Amino acid sequence: MRKDYVTEPVSTIYFGGGTPSILPSSEIDAVLSQLSKTFTIEPGAEITLEANPDDITPEKLQEWKQIGINRLSIGIQSFFEEDLAWMNRAHNAEQAQNCIHLAQDAGFFNLTIDLIYGTPTLSDEHWKKNVDTAIALQIPHLSCYALTVEPATALDKLIRQKKLADIDTEKQARHFEQLMEWMKASGYDHYEISNFAKPGFKSKHNSSYWQAKQYIGLGPSAHSFNGRSRQWNIANNALYIQSLAQGTIPAEEEVLSSEQQLNEYIMTSLRTMEGISLNKLLADFGKDKYDTVLKTAHSHLTSQHLALENNFLKTTASGKLLADGIAADLFIL
C-alpha cells in the first residue's frame, strides 16, 4: 500500500460493494481489528455495513453492534412482492419490512435503505406507498435509483428477447419528480441526486467521494484516490489473492491531469445540494477554466436548469433530471 494513502486519520469505514452481510461476524471483526492496527481510526467514526434483508437476524445484529458497526445500509429495493420478483431479489416483501424492525429493536437507528423506481412492475401508486412506508418506518436516509439495464446482462437479454418489458424513461422521470416533492415535504434534505437524509443523517462516507476527499479501497475491484491519482485493484479474485501472497498489490494507477481533476469536481459537485463553488473553481483551476465553465453554463442558466446562488452553480429541480448531461457539457476537453 502506498504511504501517501495512510497519512490521515480514518473517519469512515464502509463494508460494501458486494454482500458483506454473508460473512461471519468474526471475519468482519478481524478486518476492523487489522484496520485499527494499520490506521488511526477517529473516535466515533462512521462504520457502515451493507446488508441484504434476508441476511439480517437478531443474532447477527447483536454481533455487528458488538464489533463496532454503527450504521446499516439495507438493500430493500421495494416493499412489493412483484417488484422484488421482477428484480430477482432473494428476499420477499415481508422480510423487507421485518428486517428494519429487527435492526431498530437491536439499537440501529442510523439506517439507510435503497429503493428502485421506474421498473415495469412499479405503478405510481405503489411507488408512493414504497416511499410512504420508508418514511413511516422512520428511516433517516434513503438512496433511490432509477433502474438501469447494463449491456450483456441477463436482464438485458430477457428484455431484448421480449420476455420482460423494457424500461419506461418517462415513468422514471415522473417517479423522480414525485420523489423530490415527497421527500421535501417530509423534511428530508435532497443532498445528492440519489440521496435524501434527515438533518444529521447524511452519509459521511459517500459525502467524502462527492467532496473529492482521499479514500482507500481494499479488496478486488476496489478504488483508491489521493487527490491527484486514482488506483484500482484487479477484479479477478484468484489473481488478487495470489498477488498478495507474493507481496504485491495487483493494481493500476492513473495520474489525473488538471483538466481531469476539474471535470471530476464538476461531475461530483453538481450532483450535490451545494453545487459548484465558483470561488474554488477560480482558486484551484485558474481564470481561463473559470471563464470557460461560466460561458458554457450560461445556456443552462437561461433554461433554468442551473441556478447561481451565493457564488455556487447548482441544479434546479428540473435540472436534476439532466445533471449528468449538464456536467458533461461543462467539462473541459
From TrEMBL:
Keywords: 4Fe-4S, Chaperone, Cytoplasm, Heme, Iron, Iron-sulfur, Metal-binding, S-adenosyl-L-methionine. Residues 1-189 form the Radical SAM core domain. Gene3D superfamilies: 3.30.750.200. One of its GO terms (molecular function) is 4 iron, 4 sulfur cluster binding. PANTHER family: COPROPORPHYRINIGEN III OXIDASE, RADICAL S-ADENOSYL METHIONINE DOMAIN-CONTAINING PROTEIN 1, MITOCHONDRIAL. This is Heme chaperone HemW. Belongs to the anaerobic coproporphyrinogen-III oxidase family. HemW subfamily.
